[in-house]
Amino acid sequence: NAGVTQTPKFRVLKTGQSMTLLCAQDMNHEYMYWYRQDPGMGLRLIHYSVGEGTTAKGEVPDGYNVSRLKKQNFLLGLESAAPSQTSVYFCASSYSPQGAFHEQYFGPGTRLTVT
Amino acid sequence: AQSVAQPEDQVNVAEGNPLTVKCTYSVSGNPYLFWYVQYPNRGLQFLLKYITGDNLVKGSYGFEAEFNKSQTSFHLKKPSALVSDSALYFCAVRDRGEGDMRFGAGTRLTVKP
Hints:
- The complex is a heterodimer.
- By secondary structure, chain A is mostly beta strands.
- Chain A has strands spanning 4-7, 10-13, 19-25, 31-38, 42-51, 54-57, 65-67, 73-78, 87-94, 105-106, 110-114.
- In chain A, the strands form two sheets. In chain A, strands 2, 4, 5, 6, 9, 10 and 11 form a seven-stranded mixed β-sheet that branches. Chain A has a four-stranded antiparallel β-sheet with strand order 1-3-8-7, with no helix packed on it.
- The model of chain A has no long low-confidence stretch (mean pLDDT 93).
- By secondary structure, chain B is mostly beta strands.
- In chain B, the strands form three sheets. In chain B, strands 2, 5, 6, 10, 11 and 12 form a six-stranded mixed β-sheet that branches.
- In chain B, a hairpin with a 6-residue loop joins strand 10 (87-95) and strand 11 (102-103).
- Chain B is globular.
- Chain B starts with a strand and ends with a strand.
- The relative contact order of chain B is 0.35.
- The mean pLDDT of chain B is 93.
- Chains A and B meet through strand 5 and strand 10 of A and strand 5, strand 6, strand 10 and strand 11 of B.
């Protein structure tokens, strides 16, 4: 099992450019999440998905869009990057929380710098 | 809405001494509580969780945590620290009735030889 993988590992963007971060999991998890990690602020939830074809907003969704066309993949898009989006982005997945006690499994992260 | 506080940005202990990393939470209902660890340039790894039952929860790598409902705390402990325990530790809470998990800001643990 590869677990949760993220592509790319690093990226530098100029203000106004767009990009897509890809997250893939091979654990057949229903739930998937995108977080950003900033110094002193812990992890903040951007968007999440409770299943294929569904997405929902988290704590800090502005400036981001997501799609879950396949159960194993969860894409995070930045349409017009801003310096405030410089961060480390983590994808995670978990079993269906009917079940909210299931722990999340995290990918290795993507370090994004917007200049 | 749920929230988590980790009152210490940094905890320093000597190898072989006991360690405690503090966490307090706020939820409207009953909580699920989690501890995660993050090593440099890595994603978070699950350590342990409290769901229900025994207030003392044992997890990976010799860590344990005690759920205290009256003090709304879930402190992480280890009887004897190792240098390899040095990392960033995150406490997280989820209200049983809601989907979001909220993370604390993290506590950097440094264990000195």
